[in-house]
Amino acid sequence: MPKLAKIIVYPIKSLDGVAVNQATILPGGALQHDRELAIADEKGKIVNAKRTAKIHLVRSKFDLQNRTVSLQVMGTKKQLFQLDEERKAIEHWFSDFFGFKVKLQENLFTGFPDDLESSGPTIVSTATLTEVASWFPGLSLEQIRDRFRTNLEIDDAPPFWEDQLFAEKGEILPFQVGDVLFEGTNPCQRCPVPTRDAFTGEAYPNFQKIFVEKRKETLPEWANLSQFNHFFRLTANTRIPASEAGKILKVGDVVHRPGCQACGRLY
């Protein structure tokens, strides 16, 4: 049966992720610590990798228990900051890096998702990422994982298994991971970020063109075509109802239909 193999959260939007063994569901349907902070300019506009490829050059390492982050640009010394007590110092570090003044915004309810209507965790199977890596000579599974930045990774499932997690456009499809109820909504529309190396920002030649051709060619029979106005889509977007707040997702949780772990499982 498909089960949860990885949980990855991104404490500061567009920076490096942290693999965790479990994650608490917030009242707004996000995972605790996922994109709870975002970098914004003086007008409040988010500074992310869609806006500037320069952000790929920043390496960040988080200690969630002690609430610290170390920041580094290649060739410079690491600097350690306390996330709650040294916000001004972090803002100053990023302002120097970008060359314009920025602030850290915080949202502990929903975080800062890209899709405001489907603000839950994104989901993909490990087999999907492995298949996509095979389309691009020189790219590894880990590099593809870093490019697509998915929250929940499912094992014991075939490539594009997650395309079962959405129905007709405008409808929701309920499913559970452990005892947490999810609503699958649509395949995630990708931006320029996956076309670039996650550590250098360098673009892979013809990445989007290759991806679209292969995605269309390998689209499984269980994928709902009404959701594909184009094929630069990968991973499933979700929502988590407010009723699930406080529940905990754990690595190893089984994915199944509500009410029946045996007969309602997803293949």
Task: Outline the structure in words.
- By secondary structure, this protein is an alpha+beta fold.
- The protein folds into two domains: 3-31 and 112-265, M1 Pyruvate Kinase, Domain 3 (Beta Barrel), CATH 2.40.33; 37-106, no CATH class.
- 15% of the residues lie in helices and 30% in strands.
- The chain is built from four helices and 16 strands.
- It has helices at residues 87-98, 126-134, 141-148, 207-218, and strands at residues 3-9, 18-20, 22-24, 37-41, 58-63, 68-73, 79-82, 102-106, 123-125, 152-155, 173-177, 180-189, 233-239, 248-250, 255-257, 260-265.
- It has a five-stranded antiparallel sheet with strand order 13-12-11-15-16, with no helix packed on it. It has a four-stranded mixed sheet with strand order 2-1-10-9.
- A hairpin with a 2-residue loop joins strand 11 and strand 12.
- Helix 2 packs across helix 3.
- The protein is globular, with a radius of gyration of 18 Å.
- The N and C termini lie close together (7 Å).
